[in-house]
Amino acid sequence: MSSLSKNLEDVTISEVIEKVRNYIEDEEQIKVIENAYQFAYEKHNGQYRKSGEAYISHPLNVALILTTVYADYETISAGLLHDVLEDCDCTAEEMEEKFGPSITKLVKGVTKLSNINFSTENEYLIDYYKKIIVGMSEDVRVIIIKLADRLHNMRTLWAIPDDRQKIKAHESLEIFAPIAHHLGIHKIKSELEDLSLRYLKPDVFYDIAEKLNKTKIERDRIVYDMQNDIVNLLNEHHIPHKIKGRSKSIYSIYHKLDLGKKFSDIYDLLGLRILVNTEQECYLALGLIHSKFRPLPKRFKDYIAMPKPNMYQSLHTTVFGIEGYLFEIQIRTYDMDEVAENGIAAHWSYKENKGSNSAAMLTNTTEQKLQFFKSIIDLSHDKMSSEDFVNSVKNEVLNNNIYCFTPKGDVIELPRGATPIDFAYKIHTKVGETTVGAIVNNNIVPLDYELKDGDIVKINTNKSSSPSKEWLHMVKCSTTKNKIKAFFTKSEREVYIERGKYSLEKELRKRKLVFSEFLTDENISKICDAIRVEDLDEIYLSIGNGKATVNGVINIIHKEEESAPKTIKVTSKSIDADIIVSGIDKVKVNLANCCNPVYGDEIIGYITKGNGITVHRIHCHNLETMENRIVDVSWNSNSNKRYLTCLFVYTNDIDNHMLDLVQSVSMMNVSVDGIKVVNKGDTLTYQVDCYVTGLDQLDKLLVNLEKNRYIEKVERVMK
Ligand code: MN
């Protein structure tokens, strides 16, 4: 809300530079930004905006907005220059000479997005979506500049005629806010929504604003008191944190009122956000808060274990706070908060700081981002009529989606009305094509079952099964429909090629190799020589029809040592190796994650295909069928590592013992890696993942835990 009431005073370049300096140190980059400003200033000289200000104030504001999402110097420079090609006497060549190809490309991208010709509304929309999609697939920074441009135009919307105001506001709500949401740039999304509502439904907007205003003093007092209580609670338990009150956006309140709720019922009007350093502290803080304030049933959401598709991570809970008021509380780490506020833009700042988690976060972020782009780009490649296309983008990408989960907790985003077949195809075409059944939340369902938000879906497949034409009537996504249609027009050869490609992709992912880096021209020709085929398609074909194995193909390029993940190099002499393999000096050793052996367990080694030796506990049921590939292994007594172990803690009630558990475990000098509820019913079962030094410590831990009155029994997990 602050920006709405903010005076639109002139922004200066020094203000922009000052913000930039908070996260960019490179003086040469800053010089480029200053030059871009100088250039834009001269080119726009003498032009004025409808609001009466000198034109340059617009690009300056856009640049300032871009600094709030930590845009890089090229993006900020392009933001300053974004209207120069369109509105001024300047050619792309001239710009390229001064600022180089990549800034110019960004400006061109933004310019392209602004030149929309339209005759009918539908054509206009088609044009718009297509351009946005092309822009995204080329460089997402173009879209971020466009969002900043739109945000500033919305802030100054009062200056244009009424009918144009409504069109722009509508467009912002329908197109730009959802895109900002998908990119996870919450700040921009939320402000665009509020501004749109203000022009589309001014009476509603001001009504809500006034109600908020009237109750503000009272709400502020309650929030302040509650905040104090929580600060004391967390301090007592030595959890460093930051806490802040959180106001809901007017649009989100409007949205809930629109769904039929009463103003007085919208309980997350009172909100708090708690920021802590580590994931573990998130759960710890949650446990503490729940122990003091009774949680409202079914309002707890763990978006840390299951992030939203736009990368958002946080714990959400609603509790009965002081004086009986309901509080919606969000708990997350500083890193998560960064992503929550800035979405994909957060990765700019991650590049800057070099925290240990950043790399993993960034990879994760990029993958998620790609997933979203992929779904739009897929759409633009499918051969469908323009009208279908617009509807698909609207339905599948921009609107009202549901989020379902794989049993492992990966999020699959689907349009409302989607079925397990859509789900299966979203995972992969190959999975879709071999689907034979589906299990939703542990119940077998028919394939035309309508999935609901939050469903956990397991797809059963059978390698020799294939799609049925019936399915065309059961699916919701047009991409699924097109893929099913394509299946029936595909030759056997194509099926094998696709299958081979899928296996290769899957194995590369498993070995943490990047597909595009693996398939360089040089590598392709090496593989072709080795297995005597002509080209890439034939490589896929050979894998698909079984003439070559996928590991054989990968090993031509990557000798096994280089590719195995999380391995421990072992020699019988080295002191830090924790496992000794009899008769072998140097081999990669992994601890199996089905039975998670810890130091002291009876263990046995299993020789994997291409991934060294995996060490299992001797009773692990995954070993039963593996006799001929077993090798003797033993623990190195000099080991001083800690080992991951997963416990099921069966309790005898439904009270929340999360905090207590974390404390009991930590007190034993065992570090907790994660805790979650895995089974509800008459009683709760928790899964506790923790690191122990070995079997001795683990045994003591089990005995101690079982002394707790509320614990029925504790078991090590065997998957
Ligand atoms: Mn502009």
Q: Tell me the radius of gyration.
A: 29 Å
In CATH's first tier, which class of the largest domain applies? Mainly Alpha
Task: Tell me the strand order in the biggest sheet.
Answer: 1-2-5-4-3
Q: Unreliable segments (pLDDT under 50, ≥5 consecutive)? A: 1-7, 349-370, 561-576
Name the beta content range.
Answer: 15-25%
Structural class: alpha+beta
Overall outline: globular
Helical percentage: 40-55%
Bound small molecules, by name, code or SMILES, are: manganese (II) ion
Looking at the overall shape, the CATH architecture of the largest domain is Orthogonal Bundle
Mean pLDDT: 80
Sheet of most strands: 5 strands, mixed
Number of helices: 29
Q: What does this 3D model show about the protein?
A:
By secondary structure, the protein is α+β, with helices and mostly antiparallel strands. It has six domains: about 5-200, Orthogonal Bundle (Hypothetical protein af1432); about 215-350, Beta Polymerase, domain 2; about 400-475, Ubiquitin-like (UB roll), CATH 3.10.20; about 485-560, no CATH class; about 565-635, no CATH class; about 645-715, Alpha-Beta Plaits (2-Layer Sandwich), CATH 3.30.70. Helix content is about 50%, strand content about 15%. The chain is built from 29 helices and 21 strands. The strands form six sheets. Strands 1-2-5-4-3 form a five-stranded mixed beta sheet. A five-stranded mixed beta sheet has the order 11-13-15-14-16, with no helix packed on it. Strand 14 (about 605) and strand 15 form a beta hairpin. Helix 4 (about 55-70) packs across helix 9, helix 5 (about 75-80) packs across helix 9 (about 140-155) and helix 7 (about 90-115) packs across helix 8. The radius of gyration is 29 Å and the shape is globular. Residues about 1-5, about 350-370 and about 560-575 have low confidence and may be disordered. The chain binds manganese (II) ion. The site of manganese (II) ion has 4 residues, from loops.
